[in-house]
Amino acid sequence: MELDATDIGILRALQEDARRSLRDIAKRIGVSVPTVSSRLATLEQLGVVKAYRAVLDPERLNERSVTLIVKSNLQTADQVATDLSKLERIRRVTTARSGWIVAEATVTNREDVDVLLDAVGAIPNIVDCEHYVGVRTLKEEPRAIVTDTLSASLICFQCKGPIAGEPIKIRMDERDHYLCCRSCERLYIEKYKKMKAGA
Ligand SMILES: [Zn+2]
User: Fold this and answer.
1) Which fold would CATH assign to domain 1-54?
2) Which strands sit side by side in the sheet containing 64-72, from one edge to the other?
3) Is the pLDDT of residue 199 over 80?
């Protein structure tokens, strides 16, 4: 679905500073507080806004990054990536074409690197692994770039799965809710009504 100027204004304001109040955001982009609140609820349910967190600087905490370039066979790449993701020191895992996987880890000392490489080495089906210990980070910006034209892929508000084809769109409390099938629709409406009754 296409995001409009209000959605984009909210994302931009929050990406700059997640501690901004709804009132501040509403004033900044020229809409009402309830509008910001309902739009934000939708952006959260779509998984566009994943969390509100402080940005800690690993270098100020004497932590270093290690980038791993891992080669696996095409058939086993997803499993290798899943296994890599389970290691606590590994903070981000991306699969690429042809069985390549890029993983970013954080370590505190030289021994940590060895422990990390041992753990990675124990994962089956890795053909090759190169690692690079970071020396200095020159740039670290949030990965999502908020441009003036953005779209979000729809996920079902009930089962959180991707919606293939036309979504079921229902309007409650002046906002749209997206569901993938009739059974999710029924469960969601039940849950929603219960939540409203409890609130
Ligand atoms: Zn669903």
Assistant:
1) Arc Repressor Mutant, subunit A (1.10.10)
2) 90-95, 100-107, 64-72, 126-133
3) no
Higher pLDDT, 91 or 165: 91
The answer as to CATH 3.40.30.10 being correct for domain 58-133 is no
Q: What is the pLDDT of residue 168?
A: 95
Report how far ligand 1's centroid is from the alpha carbon of 188 (Å). Answer: 9
Q: How far is the CA of 167 from the centre of ligand 1 (A)?
A: 10
pTM of the model as a whole? 0.86
117's torsion region: left (phi>0), alpha (psi -120 to 50) or beta?
A: alpha
Q: Residue 193 Cα, ligand 1 centroid: separation in angstroms?
A: 17
